[in-house]
Amino acid sequence: MTPIPEGLDSADAAPMLCAGVTVYAALRKSEAKSGQWVVIAGAGGGLGHLGVQIGAKGMAMRVIGVDHGSKEKLAMKCGAEAFVDITKFDDKTIGEEVKRITGGVGASAVIVCTASNRAYAQALSFLRTGGTLVCVGMPEGDLVPIAGAFPSVIVTRNQKIVGSAVGNQKEAIEVLEMAARGIVKTHYKIEKMDKLTEIFKEMSELRMQGRVVLDLE
Fold first, then answer.
1. Calculated CA dihedral for residues 105, 93, 68, 164, nearest 10 degrees
2. From CA 91, how far away is CA 57, in angstroms rounded?
3. Where do the domains of the chain lie?
4. Nearest to 48 by CA among 19, 73, 77, 69
5. 112-132 pLDDT, tens per residue?
6. How far apart are CA 143 and CA 163, in angstroms?
7. Is residue 48 exposed (0-12), middle (13-18) or buried (19+ Cβ within 10 Å)?
8. pLDDT tens, 137-176?
9. 91 three-state secondary structure
10. DSSP at 19
11. CATH architecture of the domain with residue range 10-185
């Protein structure tokens, strides 16, 4: 059992015990440190907007949000220092933009929160030497390898690719404490179960911002 801090509303706590602890664990596994650049791919989604807050406000990282342009305002409000609109760049120039923002070096870590094979292929170009790509989002359909994950490049640049599922109880308690202290605030809306089809449609069209909490009453 994971204790919920007093004063933290159930609707605020629920996303922390799923999306919150998941992205917090991923940030820890990235081994990025305070003051270092971290890219959150899918920065305006349910996982991503929490990752931006936890990284920027809870762990003092310099966060770059990457997502559809419609989610820029949310990502910046959550604490992103910079935002890259995926609709304005191709697979080559998006990496160049991240390098430009980071002073030509690249990010120490990339957390891929979106379930997109293209996002994974782009993510490697964001990394600096010694950087870490953390896989969180799981694309549906046929299994597709990460494009561009050339062993020779990964070896010479001393990079890592790691996977991260949900965190442990200690991490869940820590992220709940962040929420209770006001460091992390879920951007969510409450919907009834009969709206589930509409919710999934909104997600598939990349219009979903933040999280949806289902009211089962």
1. -50
2. 29
3. 10-185
4. 19
5. 999 999 999 999 999 999 999
6. 15
7. buried
8. 999 899 999 999 999 999 999 999 999 998 999 999 999 9
9. coil
10. I
11. 3-Layer(aba) Sandwich (3.40)
